[in-house]
Amino acid sequence: MRLSQMLFVTLREDPAEAEIPSHKLLLRAGYIRRIGSGIYAYLPLMWRVLQKVSQIVREEMNATLAQECLLPQLQPSELWRESGRWDTYTQAEGIMFALKDRQERELGLGPTHEEVITTIAKEMIRSYRQLPLHLYQIQTKFRDEIRPRFGLMRGREFIMKDGYSFHADEESLKKTYQDMHQAYSNMLRRSGLSFRAVQADSGAIGGSGSQEFMVLAEAGEDEVLYTEDGQYAANVEKAVSLPADAETSIFTSYEKRETPGTDTIEKLCQFLKCSPTQVVKNVLYQAVYDNGMTVLVLVIIRADQEVNEVKLQNELTKLAAKYGGKTLLLLTVPDAEAQQKWASKCLPLGYIAPDVGDDYIASNKQVNAKFLRLIDRTAVDLKNFVTGSNESGYHVVGANWGDQFKLPEIVVDVRKARPGDRAMHNPDQTLQSARGIEVGHIFQLGTKYSKALGATYTNEQGEEVPLVMGCYGVGVSRLAQSAVEQSYDKDGIIWPVAIAPYHVIISVPNVSDAEQLQAAEKLYEQLNKAGIETLLDDRNERAGVKFKDADLIGIPYRIVTGKSLKSGKVEVVERANHKAHEIALDEVVATLKQWIDAAVS
Ligand code: ATP
Ligand code: MG
Prior knowledge:
By secondary structure, this protein is of the alpha+beta class. Helix content is 26%, strand content 27%. It has three domains: 55-240 and 433-484, Bira Bifunctional Protein, Domain 2 (BirA Bifunctional Protein, domain 2), CATH 3.30.930.10; 255-412, YbaK protein (Alpha-Beta Complex), CATH 3.90.960; 502-600, 3-Layer(aba) Sandwich (Rossmann fold), CATH 3.40.50.800. Strands 3, 7, 8, 9, 10, 11, 12, 21 and 24 form a nine-stranded mixed sheet that branches. Residues 112, 143, 145, 154-155, 158, 160, 438-441, 473, 475, 477-478 line the site of adenosine-5'-triphosphate.
Protein backbone atom coordinates (compact mmCIF):
# COMPACT_ATOMS: atom_id res chain seq x y z
CA MET A 1 0.00 0.00 0.00
CA ARG A 2 1.14 3.51 -0.82
CA LEU A 3 0.81 6.08 1.90
CA SER A 4 0.03 8.74 -0.71
CA GLN A 5 -3.18 6.86 -1.49
CA MET A 6 -4.18 5.98 2.05
CA LEU A 7 -6.42 7.76 4.50
CA PHE A 8 -3.35 8.54 6.55
CA VAL A 9 -3.72 11.22 9.18
CA THR A 10 -1.54 11.34 12.27
CA LEU A 11 -1.78 13.74 15.19
CA ARG A 12 1.16 15.44 16.85
CA GLU A 13 -0.64 16.12 20.10
CA ASP A 14 -2.15 13.69 22.56
CA PRO A 15 -5.93 13.68 22.14
CA ALA A 16 -7.67 14.98 25.25
CA GLU A 17 -10.16 12.10 25.33
CA ALA A 18 -7.48 9.46 26.00
CA GLU A 19 -5.98 8.58 29.38
CA ILE A 20 -3.71 5.59 28.85
CA PRO A 21 -0.75 5.34 26.46
CA SER A 22 -2.19 2.70 24.13
CA HIS A 23 -5.41 4.66 23.66
CA LYS A 24 -3.52 7.90 22.95
CA LEU A 25 -1.20 6.19 20.50
CA LEU A 26 -3.91 4.37 18.56
CA LEU A 27 -5.77 7.65 18.13
CA ARG A 28 -2.67 9.68 17.30
CA ALA A 29 -1.39 7.13 14.80
CA GLY A 30 -4.72 7.00 13.00
CA TYR A 31 -5.68 3.42 13.89
CA ILE A 32 -9.04 4.22 15.46
CA ARG A 33 -11.57 7.06 15.62
CA ARG A 34 -14.13 7.59 18.32
CA ILE A 35 -17.68 7.73 16.99
CA GLY A 36 -19.52 7.77 20.31
CA SER A 37 -19.06 6.67 23.91
CA GLY A 38 -17.37 3.25 23.74
CA ILE A 39 -17.91 3.13 19.99
CA TYR A 40 -14.93 3.17 17.65
CA ALA A 41 -14.22 2.89 13.97
CA TYR A 42 -11.37 0.52 13.15
CA LEU A 43 -9.48 2.31 10.36
CA PRO A 44 -7.55 0.33 7.75
CA LEU A 45 -4.34 -0.09 9.79
CA MET A 46 -6.30 -1.24 12.83
CA TRP A 47 -8.39 -3.60 10.79
CA ARG A 48 -5.26 -5.31 9.54
CA VAL A 49 -4.05 -5.75 13.13
CA LEU A 50 -7.43 -7.13 14.17
CA GLN A 51 -7.43 -9.55 11.29
CA LYS A 52 -3.97 -10.76 12.21
CA VAL A 53 -5.02 -11.32 15.80
CA SER A 54 -8.18 -13.07 14.57
CA GLN A 55 -6.11 -15.30 12.32
CA ILE A 56 -3.82 -16.36 15.16
CA VAL A 57 -6.88 -17.04 17.30
CA ARG A 58 -8.49 -19.01 14.48
CA GLU A 59 -5.39 -21.11 13.84
CA GLU A 60 -5.03 -22.00 17.50
CA MET A 61 -8.73 -22.84 17.80
CA ASN A 62 -8.73 -24.94 14.64
CA ALA A 63 -5.71 -26.87 15.96
CA THR A 64 -8.10 -28.22 18.61
CA LEU A 65 -11.47 -29.85 17.97
CA ALA A 66 -13.19 -26.49 17.64
CA GLN A 67 -15.09 -25.45 14.50
CA GLU A 68 -15.83 -21.91 13.42
CA CYS A 69 -19.39 -20.70 12.88
CA LEU A 70 -21.25 -17.38 13.09
CA LEU A 71 -24.23 -16.88 15.37
CA PRO A 72 -26.85 -14.13 15.21
CA GLN A 73 -26.28 -10.90 17.10
CA LEU A 74 -30.02 -10.24 17.36
CA GLN A 75 -31.32 -12.55 20.04
CA PRO A 76 -34.98 -13.10 20.96
CA SER A 77 -35.75 -12.33 24.60
CA GLU A 78 -37.45 -15.71 25.06
CA LEU A 79 -34.11 -17.49 25.03
CA TRP A 80 -32.84 -15.20 27.77
CA ARG A 81 -35.99 -15.58 29.81
CA GLU A 82 -35.59 -19.34 29.65
CA SER A 83 -32.08 -19.13 31.08
CA GLY A 84 -33.31 -16.61 33.65
CA ARG A 85 -30.86 -13.94 32.48
CA TRP A 86 -33.15 -11.45 30.68
CA ASP A 87 -33.89 -9.36 33.75
CA THR A 88 -30.37 -9.53 35.10
CA TYR A 89 -28.85 -8.50 31.79
CA THR A 90 -31.34 -5.83 30.79
CA GLN A 91 -32.23 -4.37 34.20
CA ALA A 92 -29.92 -5.30 37.06
CA GLU A 93 -26.59 -5.10 35.30
CA GLY A 94 -28.15 -3.39 32.32
CA ILE A 95 -25.32 -4.66 30.18
CA MET A 96 -27.51 -5.85 27.31
CA PHE A 97 -28.89 -3.47 24.71
CA ALA A 98 -32.54 -4.43 24.41
CA LEU A 99 -34.96 -3.31 21.75
CA LYS A 100 -38.41 -3.99 20.35
CA ASP A 101 -39.10 -4.81 16.75
CA ARG A 102 -42.07 -3.42 14.80
CA GLN A 103 -44.21 -6.24 16.10
CA GLU A 104 -43.36 -5.35 19.69
CA ARG A 105 -41.21 -8.45 20.11
CA GLU A 106 -38.30 -7.97 22.48
CA LEU A 107 -34.77 -8.61 21.30
CA GLY A 108 -31.32 -8.20 22.77
CA LEU A 109 -28.08 -7.39 20.99
CA GLY A 110 -25.76 -10.27 21.85
CA PRO A 111 -23.35 -9.54 24.71
CA THR A 112 -22.51 -13.28 24.79
CA HIS A 113 -24.01 -16.40 23.22
CA GLU A 114 -24.68 -19.15 25.78
CA GLU A 115 -28.43 -19.00 25.17
CA VAL A 116 -28.19 -19.16 21.38
CA ILE A 117 -25.66 -21.96 21.27
CA THR A 118 -27.43 -24.01 23.92
CA THR A 119 -30.64 -23.74 21.93
CA ILE A 120 -28.84 -25.09 18.88
CA ALA A 121 -27.31 -27.90 20.92
CA LYS A 122 -30.71 -28.72 22.36
CA GLU A 123 -32.16 -29.11 18.89
CA MET A 124 -29.24 -30.80 17.18
CA ILE A 125 -27.39 -32.95 19.71
CA ARG A 126 -29.27 -36.16 20.44
CA SER A 127 -26.67 -38.76 21.29
CA TYR A 128 -23.37 -39.20 23.11
CA ARG A 129 -21.97 -40.24 19.71
CA GLN A 130 -22.08 -36.55 18.65
CA LEU A 131 -19.92 -35.51 21.62
CA PRO A 132 -17.68 -33.74 22.36
CA LEU A 133 -18.49 -30.76 20.17
CA HIS A 134 -16.95 -27.30 20.23
CA LEU A 135 -18.18 -24.34 18.18
CA TYR A 136 -16.64 -20.88 18.15
CA GLN A 137 -17.10 -17.59 16.36
CA ILE A 138 -15.27 -14.29 15.97
CA GLN A 139 -17.78 -11.50 16.09
CA THR A 140 -18.76 -8.06 17.29
CA LYS A 141 -20.35 -8.11 20.74
CA PHE A 142 -22.50 -5.40 22.26
CA ARG A 143 -22.41 -4.45 25.92
CA ASP A 144 -23.79 -1.29 27.45
CA GLU A 145 -20.86 -0.95 29.86
CA ILE A 146 -21.37 1.48 32.75
CA ARG A 147 -17.96 3.01 32.20
CA PRO A 148 -16.75 2.52 28.66
CA ARG A 149 -13.17 3.73 28.61
CA PHE A 150 -9.61 3.37 27.41
CA GLY A 151 -10.62 3.03 23.77
CA LEU A 152 -10.88 -0.57 22.66
CA MET A 153 -10.11 -1.85 26.15
CA ARG A 154 -13.68 -1.39 27.34
CA GLY A 155 -15.91 -0.63 24.42
CA ARG A 156 -19.64 -0.94 24.04
CA GLU A 157 -19.09 -2.65 20.72
CA PHE A 158 -16.02 -4.88 20.50
CA ILE A 159 -14.71 -8.00 18.83
CA MET A 160 -14.66 -11.25 20.71
CA LYS A 161 -13.87 -14.83 19.95
CA ASP A 162 -16.32 -16.91 21.92
CA GLY A 163 -16.42 -20.68 21.94
CA TYR A 164 -18.75 -23.16 23.59
CA SER A 165 -18.07 -26.85 24.10
CA PHE A 166 -20.49 -29.69 24.83
CA HIS A 167 -19.57 -32.89 26.59
CA ALA A 168 -20.93 -36.15 27.88
CA ASP A 169 -19.14 -35.78 31.20
CA GLU A 170 -16.86 -33.64 33.36
CA GLU A 171 -13.81 -35.59 32.29
CA SER A 172 -14.31 -34.71 28.65
CA LEU A 173 -14.94 -31.07 29.61
CA LYS A 174 -11.68 -31.01 31.58
CA LYS A 175 -9.79 -32.30 28.57
CA THR A 176 -11.13 -29.51 26.34
CA TYR A 177 -10.52 -26.97 29.12
CA GLN A 178 -6.88 -28.09 29.20
CA ASP A 179 -6.68 -27.83 25.40
CA MET A 180 -8.09 -24.30 25.62
CA HIS A 181 -5.57 -23.38 28.28
CA GLN A 182 -2.88 -24.43 25.84
CA ALA A 183 -4.53 -22.73 22.86
CA TYR A 184 -4.91 -19.45 24.78
CA SER A 185 -1.31 -19.57 25.97
CA ASN A 186 -0.24 -20.11 22.35
CA MET A 187 -2.39 -17.24 21.07
CA LEU A 188 -0.93 -14.78 23.52
CA ARG A 189 2.63 -15.96 23.11
CA ARG A 190 2.32 -15.77 19.32
CA SER A 191 0.83 -12.27 19.58
CA GLY A 192 3.98 -11.23 21.42
CA LEU A 193 2.35 -10.58 24.79
CA SER A 194 3.68 -11.14 28.27
CA PHE A 195 0.84 -12.66 30.28
CA ARG A 196 -0.19 -14.76 33.25
CA ALA A 197 -3.03 -17.26 33.59
CA VAL A 198 -4.80 -16.70 36.92
CA GLN A 199 -7.60 -18.35 38.86
CA ALA A 200 -10.77 -16.41 38.33
CA ASP A 201 -14.15 -15.98 39.94
CA SER A 202 -16.71 -18.30 38.38
CA GLY A 203 -19.57 -16.30 39.80
CA ALA A 204 -22.39 -18.05 41.53
CA ILE A 205 -22.49 -20.73 38.82
CA GLY A 206 -19.68 -22.32 40.70
CA GLY A 207 -18.42 -24.65 38.02
CA SER A 208 -15.25 -26.47 38.74
CA GLY A 209 -12.90 -23.91 37.37
CA SER A 210 -12.22 -20.77 35.51
CA GLN A 211 -9.05 -18.99 34.53
CA GLU A 212 -8.38 -15.55 33.17
CA PHE A 213 -5.50 -14.69 30.90
CA MET A 214 -4.04 -11.43 32.06
CA VAL A 215 -1.76 -9.24 30.04
CA LEU A 216 0.48 -7.59 32.60
CA ALA A 217 0.39 -3.80 32.38
CA GLU A 218 0.07 -0.86 34.75
CA ALA A 219 -3.10 0.32 33.02
CA GLY A 220 -4.84 -2.99 33.79
CA GLU A 221 -8.22 -2.71 35.48
CA ASP A 222 -7.72 -6.00 37.30
CA GLU A 223 -5.53 -6.77 40.27
CA VAL A 224 -3.70 -10.07 40.27
CA LEU A 225 -2.28 -11.58 43.46
CA TYR A 226 0.50 -14.11 43.01
CA THR A 227 3.39 -15.74 44.83
CA GLU A 228 7.03 -15.61 43.76
CA ASP A 229 7.29 -19.41 43.71
CA GLY A 230 4.91 -19.49 40.73
CA GLN A 231 2.51 -21.81 42.56
CA TYR A 232 -0.34 -19.36 42.96
CA ALA A 233 -1.91 -16.58 40.90
CA ALA A 234 -5.48 -15.37 41.18
CA ASN A 235 -7.66 -12.41 40.39
CA VAL A 236 -8.15 -10.46 43.61
CA GLU A 237 -11.91 -11.13 43.20
CA LYS A 238 -11.21 -14.81 43.73
CA ALA A 239 -7.94 -14.82 45.69
CA VAL A 240 -7.64 -16.54 49.05
CA SER A 241 -4.94 -16.14 51.70
CA LEU A 242 -4.28 -16.52 55.38
CA PRO A 243 -5.26 -13.41 57.35
CA ALA A 244 -2.71 -11.94 59.75
CA ASP A 245 -2.99 -13.42 63.27
CA ALA A 246 -5.27 -11.49 65.61
CA GLU A 247 -3.65 -9.82 68.58
CA THR A 248 -4.83 -10.94 72.00
CA SER A 249 -7.49 -8.58 73.24
CA ILE A 250 -6.46 -6.00 75.81
CA PHE A 251 -9.94 -6.26 77.35
CA THR A 252 -10.74 -8.93 79.89
CA SER A 253 -14.26 -8.13 80.98
CA TYR A 254 -17.44 -7.11 79.23
CA GLU A 255 -18.32 -3.48 79.49
CA LYS A 256 -20.16 -0.78 77.57
CA ARG A 257 -17.97 2.28 77.03
CA GLU A 258 -18.63 5.75 75.87
CA THR A 259 -16.61 6.21 72.67
CA PRO A 260 -17.66 9.58 71.28
CA GLY A 261 -16.93 10.38 67.63
CA THR A 262 -15.63 6.91 66.77
CA ASP A 263 -17.74 6.02 63.77
CA THR A 264 -14.77 4.63 61.85
CA ILE A 265 -12.52 1.71 62.82
CA GLU A 266 -9.47 3.95 62.74
CA LYS A 267 -10.95 6.47 65.17
CA LEU A 268 -12.25 3.71 67.40
CA CYS A 269 -8.89 1.92 67.62
CA GLN A 270 -7.13 5.20 68.33
CA PHE A 271 -9.61 6.02 71.06
CA LEU A 272 -9.47 2.59 72.73
CA LYS A 273 -5.76 2.09 71.94
CA CYS A 274 -6.51 -1.36 70.60
CA SER A 275 -5.72 -3.29 67.43
CA PRO A 276 -8.39 -3.58 64.72
CA THR A 277 -7.82 -7.34 64.93
CA GLN A 278 -9.64 -7.21 68.29
CA VAL A 279 -12.64 -5.45 66.82
CA VAL A 280 -15.67 -6.97 65.13
CA LYS A 281 -17.17 -4.67 62.52
CA ASN A 282 -20.68 -4.99 61.16
CA VAL A 283 -21.09 -3.90 57.58
CA LEU A 284 -24.56 -3.27 56.24
CA TYR A 285 -25.49 -4.21 52.67
CA GLN A 286 -28.73 -4.16 50.79
CA ALA A 287 -29.46 -7.05 48.43
CA VAL A 288 -32.26 -7.11 45.89
CA TYR A 289 -33.30 -10.42 44.36
CA ASP A 290 -34.93 -10.93 40.97
CA ASN A 291 -38.38 -11.35 42.53
CA GLY A 292 -38.09 -7.80 43.87
CA MET A 293 -37.35 -8.90 47.43
CA THR A 294 -34.98 -6.61 49.36
CA VAL A 295 -32.88 -8.26 52.05
CA LEU A 296 -30.76 -6.30 54.52
CA VAL A 297 -27.48 -8.08 55.01
CA LEU A 298 -25.16 -7.64 57.96
CA VAL A 299 -21.63 -8.85 57.25
CA ILE A 300 -19.78 -9.42 60.49
CA ILE A 301 -16.04 -9.43 59.95
CA ARG A 302 -12.79 -8.73 61.79
CA ALA A 303 -12.22 -5.00 61.53
CA ASP A 304 -8.77 -5.12 59.94
CA GLN A 305 -10.33 -6.99 57.01
CA GLU A 306 -12.36 -5.80 54.07
CA VAL A 307 -15.34 -7.40 52.42
CA ASN A 308 -14.75 -8.86 48.96
CA GLU A 309 -18.04 -7.95 47.31
CA VAL A 310 -17.65 -10.54 44.56
CA LYS A 311 -17.41 -13.30 47.15
CA LEU A 312 -20.34 -11.77 49.02
CA GLN A 313 -22.44 -11.69 45.84
CA ASN A 314 -21.72 -15.37 45.29
CA GLU A 315 -22.84 -16.21 48.84
CA LEU A 316 -26.01 -14.16 48.42
CA THR A 317 -26.79 -15.81 45.12
CA LYS A 318 -26.56 -19.21 46.79
CA LEU A 319 -29.17 -17.99 49.28
CA ALA A 320 -31.58 -16.69 46.60
CA ALA A 321 -34.05 -19.56 46.97
CA LYS A 322 -34.43 -18.79 50.67
CA TYR A 323 -35.97 -15.47 49.64
CA GLY A 324 -38.03 -16.87 46.81
CA GLY A 325 -35.68 -15.59 44.09
CA LYS A 326 -33.44 -17.16 41.50
CA THR A 327 -30.68 -14.63 41.19
CA LEU A 328 -29.31 -11.58 42.90
CA LEU A 329 -30.04 -8.39 41.02
CA LEU A 330 -28.28 -5.76 43.07
CA LEU A 331 -25.90 -5.45 45.97
CA THR A 332 -25.28 -2.01 47.43
CA VAL A 333 -24.24 -0.27 50.61
CA PRO A 334 -27.51 1.53 51.38
CA ASP A 335 -27.12 5.29 51.58
CA ALA A 336 -29.42 7.54 53.62
CA GLU A 337 -31.96 7.71 50.82
CA ALA A 338 -32.05 3.93 50.36
CA GLN A 339 -32.44 3.45 54.12
CA GLN A 340 -35.53 5.65 54.16
CA LYS A 341 -37.31 3.04 52.08
CA TRP A 342 -37.09 0.34 54.76
CA ALA A 343 -35.70 1.71 58.05
CA SER A 344 -38.37 2.11 60.75
CA LYS A 345 -36.05 4.35 62.75
CA CYS A 346 -32.65 5.93 62.45
CA LEU A 347 -29.87 3.31 62.39
CA PRO A 348 -26.89 3.76 64.75
CA LEU A 349 -24.49 3.85 61.81
CA GLY A 350 -20.87 3.35 62.84
CA TYR A 351 -22.06 1.79 66.10
CA ILE A 352 -24.05 -1.21 64.86
CA ALA A 353 -23.70 -4.44 66.86
CA PRO A 354 -23.98 -8.00 65.51
CA ASP A 355 -27.39 -8.27 67.20
CA VAL A 356 -28.85 -5.04 65.81
CA GLY A 357 -32.60 -5.45 66.18
CA ASP A 358 -34.80 -6.59 63.32
CA ASP A 359 -37.24 -3.88 64.45
CA TYR A 360 -35.08 -1.39 62.56
CA ILE A 361 -36.66 -2.89 59.46
CA ALA A 362 -40.15 -1.78 58.50
CA SER A 363 -40.89 -4.92 56.56
CA ASN A 364 -43.45 -5.41 53.85
CA LYS A 365 -44.00 -7.80 50.96
CA GLN A 366 -40.91 -6.52 49.22
CA VAL A 367 -38.65 -6.14 52.26
CA ASN A 368 -37.58 -9.14 54.31
CA ALA A 369 -38.38 -8.67 58.01
CA LYS A 370 -35.05 -9.91 59.33
CA PHE A 371 -31.42 -9.05 58.82
CA LEU A 372 -29.47 -11.76 57.09
CA ARG A 373 -26.46 -12.07 59.38
CA LEU A 374 -23.34 -13.53 57.77
CA ILE A 375 -20.20 -13.95 59.79
CA ASP A 376 -16.83 -14.09 58.12
CA ARG A 377 -14.42 -16.74 59.40
CA THR A 378 -12.03 -14.06 60.69
CA ALA A 379 -14.57 -12.96 63.30
CA VAL A 380 -15.59 -16.40 64.55
CA ASP A 381 -12.67 -17.16 66.87
CA LEU A 382 -12.26 -13.71 68.42
CA LYS A 383 -12.38 -13.49 72.19
CA ASN A 384 -13.09 -10.43 74.35
CA PHE A 385 -13.66 -8.38 71.24
CA VAL A 386 -14.80 -4.81 70.75
CA THR A 387 -17.93 -4.10 68.72
CA GLY A 388 -20.82 -1.67 68.39
CA SER A 389 -23.52 -1.25 71.03
CA ASN A 390 -26.40 -0.17 68.76
CA GLU A 391 -26.19 3.22 70.40
CA SER A 392 -24.42 6.16 68.78
CA GLY A 393 -21.27 7.15 70.68
CA TYR A 394 -20.95 3.83 72.54
CA HIS A 395 -19.15 0.53 71.93
CA VAL A 396 -18.84 -2.63 73.97
CA VAL A 397 -15.49 -4.22 74.88
CA GLY A 398 -14.59 -7.70 76.15
CA ALA A 399 -17.51 -9.31 74.32
CA ASN A 400 -17.68 -13.01 73.46
CA TRP A 401 -19.76 -15.16 71.14
CA GLY A 402 -22.12 -17.32 73.15
CA ASP A 403 -22.10 -14.81 76.05
CA GLN A 404 -23.23 -11.35 74.97
CA PHE A 405 -23.83 -12.22 71.32
CA LYS A 406 -25.24 -15.25 69.60
CA LEU A 407 -22.85 -16.56 66.97
CA PRO A 408 -24.58 -16.12 63.59
CA GLU A 409 -25.39 -19.42 61.94
CA ILE A 410 -24.05 -18.72 58.49
CA VAL A 411 -20.26 -18.68 58.44
CA VAL A 412 -18.75 -17.49 55.16
CA ASP A 413 -15.42 -16.54 53.63
CA VAL A 414 -15.95 -13.09 52.19
CA ARG A 415 -12.73 -11.38 53.17
CA LYS A 416 -10.58 -9.74 50.60
CA ALA A 417 -7.11 -11.21 50.15
CA ARG A 418 -4.46 -8.51 50.09
CA PRO A 419 -0.86 -8.14 48.99
CA GLY A 420 1.41 -9.06 51.88
CA ASP A 421 -0.96 -11.78 53.15
CA ARG A 422 0.53 -15.23 53.67
CA ALA A 423 -0.32 -17.75 50.95
CA MET A 424 -2.54 -20.72 51.68
CA HIS A 425 -0.35 -23.28 49.91
CA ASN A 426 2.75 -22.15 51.76
CA PRO A 427 2.62 -19.57 54.55
CA ASP A 428 6.25 -18.63 53.88
CA GLN A 429 5.14 -17.15 50.59
CA THR A 430 3.46 -13.77 50.67
CA LEU A 431 1.06 -12.48 48.06
CA GLN A 432 2.41 -9.94 45.59
CA SER A 433 0.28 -7.67 43.50
CA ALA A 434 0.35 -6.84 39.79
CA ARG A 435 -2.02 -5.07 37.42
CA GLY A 436 -3.48 -7.05 34.57
CA ILE A 437 -5.70 -6.58 31.53
CA GLU A 438 -8.07 -9.53 31.17
CA VAL A 439 -7.83 -10.59 27.55
CA GLY A 440 -9.23 -14.10 27.84
CA HIS A 441 -11.38 -16.19 30.10
CA ILE A 442 -11.87 -19.95 30.02
CA PHE A 443 -14.68 -21.42 32.02
CA GLN A 444 -16.06 -24.82 33.00
CA LEU A 445 -19.76 -24.05 32.95
CA GLY A 446 -21.20 -27.44 33.84
CA THR A 447 -24.93 -27.83 33.30
CA LYS A 448 -26.29 -24.39 34.24
CA TYR A 449 -27.47 -23.50 30.74
CA SER A 450 -28.23 -26.99 29.47
CA LYS A 451 -30.50 -27.56 32.50
CA ALA A 452 -32.19 -24.20 32.20
CA LEU A 453 -32.86 -24.61 28.49
CA GLY A 454 -33.47 -28.36 28.56
CA ALA A 455 -30.50 -29.28 26.37
CA THR A 456 -30.12 -32.99 26.95
CA TYR A 457 -28.64 -35.97 25.12
CA THR A 458 -28.99 -39.71 25.43
CA ASN A 459 -25.99 -41.32 27.11
CA GLU A 460 -24.53 -44.79 26.52
CA GLN A 461 -26.92 -46.24 29.09
CA GLY A 462 -29.86 -44.84 27.18
CA GLU A 463 -30.68 -42.17 29.76
CA GLU A 464 -31.50 -38.58 28.85
CA VAL A 465 -29.14 -36.25 30.74
CA PRO A 466 -28.10 -32.59 30.47
CA LEU A 467 -25.10 -31.66 28.33
CA VAL A 468 -21.97 -30.62 30.20
CA MET A 469 -20.64 -27.30 28.88
CA GLY A 470 -17.57 -25.11 28.78
CA CYS A 471 -17.12 -21.61 27.37
CA TYR A 472 -14.04 -19.71 26.30
CA GLY A 473 -13.70 -16.05 25.35
CA VAL A 474 -10.93 -13.84 23.98
CA GLY A 475 -11.30 -10.11 23.55
CA VAL A 476 -9.75 -9.74 20.11
CA SER A 477 -9.91 -5.94 20.03
CA ARG A 478 -8.83 -5.65 23.66
CA LEU A 479 -5.92 -7.99 23.00
CA ALA A 480 -4.76 -5.84 20.09
CA GLN A 481 -4.73 -2.68 22.20
CA SER A 482 -3.05 -4.53 25.09
CA ALA A 483 -0.15 -5.26 22.78
CA VAL A 484 0.36 -1.52 22.40
CA GLU A 485 0.01 -0.99 26.14
CA GLN A 486 2.90 -3.41 26.62
CA SER A 487 5.02 -2.18 23.78
CA TYR A 488 5.63 1.49 22.99
CA ASP A 489 8.21 4.19 23.56
CA LYS A 490 8.30 7.98 23.44
CA ASP A 491 8.16 7.89 19.65
CA GLY A 492 5.12 5.70 19.29
CA ILE A 493 3.87 2.15 18.97
CA ILE A 494 6.19 -0.85 18.70
CA TRP A 495 4.04 -3.64 17.26
CA PRO A 496 5.05 -7.22 17.86
CA VAL A 497 5.92 -8.43 14.35
CA ALA A 498 3.19 -11.09 14.33
CA ILE A 499 0.34 -8.60 14.63
CA ALA A 500 1.82 -5.47 13.04
CA PRO A 501 -0.40 -4.11 10.26
CA TYR A 502 2.61 -4.20 7.90
CA HIS A 503 6.05 -5.68 8.38
CA VAL A 504 8.00 -3.02 6.56
CA ILE A 505 7.68 0.63 5.65
CA ILE A 506 9.85 2.09 2.92
CA SER A 507 10.46 5.77 3.55
CA VAL A 508 11.63 7.69 0.50
CA PRO A 509 13.45 10.71 1.93
CA ASN A 510 13.00 12.77 -1.22
CA VAL A 511 10.36 11.72 -3.76
CA SER A 512 11.64 14.10 -6.39
CA ASP A 513 14.94 12.19 -6.45
CA ALA A 514 14.33 9.67 -9.25
CA GLU A 515 16.98 7.24 -8.06
CA GLN A 516 15.49 7.12 -4.54
CA LEU A 517 11.99 6.65 -5.80
CA GLN A 518 12.96 4.02 -8.32
CA ALA A 519 14.89 1.95 -5.78
CA ALA A 520 11.97 2.21 -3.39
CA GLU A 521 9.43 1.15 -6.02
CA LYS A 522 11.53 -1.85 -6.92
CA LEU A 523 11.95 -2.97 -3.31
CA TYR A 524 8.27 -2.38 -2.70
CA GLU A 525 7.41 -4.76 -5.49
CA GLN A 526 9.96 -7.40 -4.52
CA LEU A 527 9.04 -7.38 -0.86
CA ASN A 528 5.31 -7.68 -1.44
CA LYS A 529 5.94 -10.44 -3.95
CA ALA A 530 7.93 -12.30 -1.30
CA GLY A 531 4.98 -12.07 1.08
CA ILE A 532 6.51 -9.31 3.18
CA GLU A 533 3.72 -6.84 3.80
CA THR A 534 5.11 -3.48 2.87
CA LEU A 535 4.01 0.13 2.98
CA LEU A 536 5.56 2.69 0.69
CA ASP A 537 5.81 6.21 2.06
CA ASP A 538 5.84 8.03 -1.26
CA ARG A 539 4.25 11.19 0.09
CA ASN A 540 5.71 14.51 -0.86
CA GLU A 541 6.79 15.26 2.72
CA ARG A 542 10.06 16.05 4.48
CA ALA A 543 12.14 13.03 5.50
CA GLY A 544 11.83 14.00 9.17
CA VAL A 545 8.04 13.89 9.00
CA LYS A 546 8.13 10.47 7.37
CA PHE A 547 10.48 9.01 9.96
CA LYS A 548 8.35 10.39 12.79
CA ASP A 549 5.21 8.91 11.27
CA ALA A 550 6.88 5.55 10.68
CA ASP A 551 7.93 5.44 14.33
CA LEU A 552 4.51 6.53 15.51
CA ILE A 553 2.60 3.85 13.62
CA GLY A 554 5.07 1.26 14.84
CA ILE A 555 5.93 -0.75 11.74
CA PRO A 556 8.72 -3.19 12.78
CA TYR A 557 11.21 -2.39 9.99
CA ARG A 558 11.83 0.86 8.14
CA ILE A 559 13.79 0.95 4.91
CA VAL A 560 15.32 4.29 3.91
CA THR A 561 16.33 4.72 0.31
CA GLY A 562 18.77 7.52 1.06
CA LYS A 563 22.48 8.31 0.77
CA SER A 564 23.69 4.71 0.94
CA LEU A 565 22.09 4.04 -2.44
CA LYS A 566 25.32 5.44 -3.90
CA SER A 567 27.06 2.29 -2.65
CA GLY A 568 24.16 0.01 -3.66
CA LYS A 569 22.72 -0.18 -0.18
CA VAL A 570 19.73 0.94 1.86
CA GLU A 571 19.41 1.64 5.53
CA VAL A 572 17.11 -0.72 7.46
CA VAL A 573 16.08 0.46 10.92
CA GLU A 574 14.53 -1.79 13.56
CA ARG A 575 11.63 0.02 15.21
CA ALA A 576 12.02 -1.67 18.59
CA ASN A 577 15.56 -0.49 19.30
CA HIS A 578 16.30 2.02 16.52
CA LYS A 579 19.24 -0.12 15.39
CA ALA A 580 20.28 0.78 11.83
CA HIS A 581 21.79 -1.67 9.34
CA GLU A 582 23.23 -0.99 5.89
CA ILE A 583 22.08 -3.78 3.62
CA ALA A 584 22.89 -4.39 -0.03
CA LEU A 585 19.86 -3.92 -2.30
CA ASP A 586 19.87 -7.51 -3.49
CA GLU A 587 19.99 -8.86 0.06
CA VAL A 588 17.16 -6.81 1.52
CA VAL A 589 14.36 -9.26 0.79
CA ALA A 590 16.19 -12.33 2.08
CA THR A 591 17.41 -10.55 5.21
CA LEU A 592 14.00 -9.20 6.12
CA LYS A 593 12.35 -12.52 5.41
CA GLN A 594 14.74 -14.16 7.83
CA TRP A 595 14.19 -11.54 10.53
CA ILE A 596 10.43 -11.70 10.21
CA ASP A 597 10.30 -15.48 10.24
CA ALA A 598 12.46 -15.53 13.34
CA ALA A 599 10.27 -12.93 15.05
CA VAL A 600 6.97 -14.72 14.48
CA SER A 601 8.08 -18.28 15.13
P1 ATP B 1 -14.55 -7.57 32.17
O1 ATP B 1 -14.47 -8.13 33.55
O2 ATP B 1 -13.28 -6.91 31.73
O3 ATP B 1 -15.77 -6.76 31.93
P2 ATP B 1 -15.87 -9.93 31.31
O4 ATP B 1 -15.62 -10.83 32.44
O5 ATP B 1 -17.16 -9.23 31.21
O6 ATP B 1 -14.68 -8.85 31.23
P3 ATP B 1 -16.15 -12.03 29.37
O7 ATP B 1 -17.61 -11.95 29.39
O8 ATP B 1 -15.47 -13.21 29.95
O9 ATP B 1 -15.52 -10.69 29.97
O10 ATP B 1 -15.68 -11.80 27.86
C1 ATP B 1 -14.56 -12.45 27.27
C2 ATP B 1 -13.49 -11.44 26.89
O11 ATP B 1 -14.04 -10.36 26.13
C3 ATP B 1 -12.84 -10.76 28.07
O12 ATP B 1 -11.81 -11.58 28.59
C4 ATP B 1 -12.30 -9.49 27.45
O13 ATP B 1 -11.04 -9.74 26.84
C5 ATP B 1 -13.30 -9.18 26.38
N1 ATP B 1 -14.21 -8.09 26.78
C6 ATP B 1 -15.21 -8.14 27.67
N2 ATP B 1 -15.85 -6.97 27.77
C7 ATP B 1 -15.22 -6.13 26.90
C8 ATP B 1 -15.42 -4.77 26.51
N3 ATP B 1 -16.39 -4.05 27.04
N4 ATP B 1 -14.60 -4.24 25.58
C9 ATP B 1 -13.61 -4.98 25.02
N5 ATP B 1 -13.38 -6.26 25.34
C10 ATP B 1 -14.16 -6.84 26.26
MG1 MG C 1 -17.64 -7.27 31.65
